[in-house]
Amino acid sequence: MKKLLILAVCSSLAFTSCVSNKKYAELEAKQKNTQDLLNTATVKLNDCLTERAAASARAKELEERLADMRKTNQDLIQSSKDLTMLTSKGATNLEKSLESLKEKDLKITRLQDALNKKDSVTLALVTSLKREVGVNDPDIEVNVEKGVVYISLSDKVIFKSGSYQISGRATEILGKVAKVINGKPDFEAMVEGHTDNVPFGKRGELLDNWDLSVKRATAIVRELQNLGVAPSRLVAAGRSEYVPLVPNTTAENRSTNRRTRILVLPKIDQFYDMIEKEMKNLEAEGK
């Protein structure tokens, strides 16, 4: 009986031990599965967190780009407004510039008309002088230089060598010149005396070539005055040897340089008065 009792107890303990090991194994397997699930969930959670952070960064970048685009759009709108204002202002300035150019063009046209009128008078004056004085005499030249009409008379036609006494031939020629000048009341006559470079020693009242050139000019001026030209329209000038036509290297060249020029030119003050009058007319029209 005692042996049977011991055997029963041992059997009970063995059965209990077998049941506990099996349950432990099951629990251990469940723990492993649970740990695997936890690990998987952790990995997924980390991936989600990473994706969320990336999405947040992307969203922030998009927000910044959107803000930049909005600012750029505002800048473009402002630039468009500024450009519109500048275009309008530019158009106004261009219109003013065109008006100014029209006014200047009108002034130039008026002045050109005045100069053309002067040129027409100059041409008529040359024609009159050539008709009166003649154009076939090699010692008499009628020409235009820089808009000024002049008569160049050779020294041998008017004066004797070293003298300022006018010859009879000179009186005849100057009479024709005086006729033309008197027919042009808006013109003046300036007489220039020229010599060669041969030194002129003191001879009576004459001191040198300067003195000779001036006295020849004043002699012709006096003769023109005697022929009826108003003295207020006459100018006497001596140029001595310092404006030669050709080098004073030969007797022929020195003869060419000994000459008298009579310049017939418009009265400068009247010419400027005409210009000033045109300018005032244009200013009045502009107002």
TrEMBL record:
Highest taxon of source: Bacteria
Matching Gene3D superfamilies: OmpA-like domain
Signal peptide: none
Coiled coil (UniProt feature): 24-79
A Pfam family hit: OmpA
Keyword Lipoprotein: no
Keywords per UniProt: Coiled coil, Membrane
Residue ranges of every copy of the OmpA-like domain listed in the record: 146-268
Database matches in InterPro entries: Bact_OuterMem_StrucFunc, OmpA-like, OmpA-like_sf
Entry-linked PANTHER family: LIPOPROTEIN YIAD-RELATED, STATOR ELEMENT OF FLAGELLAR MOTOR COMPLEX
Protein name in the entry: OmpA family protein
Organism of this sequence: Aequorivita aurantiaca
